[in-house]
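User: tokens in, sequence out, please.
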């Protein structure tokens, strides 16, 4: 039975970075402020971030870059390749800044976080949120929007309204009367956690907006549509059913890329897939996990009708969970040798680490002399050096000694990695 007891001691804020990738580019290049900017996806394929100036031009999100290249150049739009090292580091700085104001922070995405505060009748939350917003901008250079509400679902709605604010990008949805007024204008499909499919089902029973869902019978919603939607009903009523998820541990981790150019030989494939495996291992260790199974795959370009098509994948496991990059690379290379076929132009490949378990969940094997302590110490040393001096300071030869292989993703418009690469810092004479 779902508890309906309202937790009136907490209140949630959703902090969302405004045009995050664009804002990161502007932090270190002030001349870009108020200039139209787009950021492109891997291989400079699609537009994945737009400044407000570009949105005003009618350039759609996710549009293929080559379709709009001429228009962008004609309008004087600044074009940048995705600089994920810079974005990831700036995201960490924003999240660390939030933890100064509250220890309860859920990193929801690279540019979003839920923050939980102890509720107080005496606190002026508008001024407090304004302090947070101004402090983050002062410390990181990243502008944010903040929505405040008694539940995470309402905080999501409040944040979307904050983004539309032209004044301060802050919206307080803690008042029940304000909630009723706002929810009537929110379409049911726009509610966090409700898909188009669920929206269609709700409309069939006469529920088309958030206020109607709020006023629906929780018991009936649960009976016909399930407990997830029942929780949303309570959340819309201001009853908190979703607490912060601070673990952030994933069951699987995948790193996959389209190659910069098609690959037709095993050597280049091994280098590319090995690099993806190294990245996946770093992510796995960062969340304190080990993998039991590794999935490796290759595929050709299905959109190229003139070339022969091929797709294959293979899964292999360890007798004991493993987090050692060297051991995983050996397994990945064995997998690759089994699925590789000559005569094809390979377009994409990747590695997935499957069945992840916590570091402390491993059973010793009498017939295996694997030394977890030595392996963990070695990996810790590698990770710390790369974290301190920049990614790739220590690297595996399996991923290639050249950093400009044809298989590398196209990044013709890449900005410097200001915060993670000493050599890319600007020189001032």
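Assistant: Sequence out:
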């Amino acid at each position: 039975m779902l508890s309906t007891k309202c937790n009136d001691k907490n209140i949630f804020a959703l902090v969302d970075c405004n045009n995050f990738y664009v804002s990161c580019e502007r932090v270190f290049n002030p001349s870009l402020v108020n200039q139209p900017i787009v950021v492109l996806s891997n291989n400079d394929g699609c537009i994945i971030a737009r400044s407000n100036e570009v949105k005003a031009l009618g350039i759609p999100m996710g549009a293929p870059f080559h379709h709009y290249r001429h228009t962008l150049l004609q309008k004087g739009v600044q074009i940048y390749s995705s600089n994920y090292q810079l974005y990831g580091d700036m995201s960490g700085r924003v999240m660390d800044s939030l933890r100064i104001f509250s220890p309860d922070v859920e990193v929801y995405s690279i540019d979003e976080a839920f923050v939980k505060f102890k509720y107080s009748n005496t606190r002026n939350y508008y001024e407090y949120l304004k302090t947070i917003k101004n402090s983050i901008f002062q410390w990181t250079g990243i502008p944010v929007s903040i929505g405040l509400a008694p539940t995470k679902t309402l905080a999501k709605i409040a944040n979307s309204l904050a983004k539309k604010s032209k004044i301060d990008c802050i919206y307080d949805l803690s008042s029940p009367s304000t909630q009723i007024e706002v929810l009537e204008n929110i379409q049911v499909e726009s509610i966090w956690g409700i898909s188009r499919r669920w929206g269609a089902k709700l409309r069939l029973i006469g529920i088309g907006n958030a206020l109607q869902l709020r006023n629906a019978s929780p018991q009936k919603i649960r009976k016909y549509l399930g407990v997830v939607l029942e929780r949303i009903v309570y959340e819309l009523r201001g009853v908190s059913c979703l607490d912060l998820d601070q673990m952030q541990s994933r069951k699987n981790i995948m790193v996959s890329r389209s190659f910069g150019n098609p690959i037709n030989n095993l050597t280049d494939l091994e280098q590319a897939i090995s690099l993806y495996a190294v990245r996946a291992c770093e992510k796995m260790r960062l969340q304190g996990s080990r993998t039991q199974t590794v999935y490796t795959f290759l595929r050709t370009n299905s959109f190229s009708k003139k070339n022969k098509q091929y797709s294959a994948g293979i899964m292999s496991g360890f007798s004991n969970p493993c987090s050692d990059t060297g051991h995983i690379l050996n397994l990945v290379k064995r997998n690759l040798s089994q699925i590789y076929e000559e005569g094809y132009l390979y377009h994409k490949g990747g590695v997935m680490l499957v069945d992840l378990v916590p570091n402390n969940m491993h059973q010793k094997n009498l017939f295996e002399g694997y030394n977890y302590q030595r392996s963990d110490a070695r990996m810790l040393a590698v990770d710390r050096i790369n974290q301190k001096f920049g990614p790739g300071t220590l690297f595996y030869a399996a991923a290639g000694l050249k950093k400009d292989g044809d298989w590398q993703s196209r990044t013709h418009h890449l900005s410097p990695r200001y915060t993670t690469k000493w050599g890319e810092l600007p020189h001032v004479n």
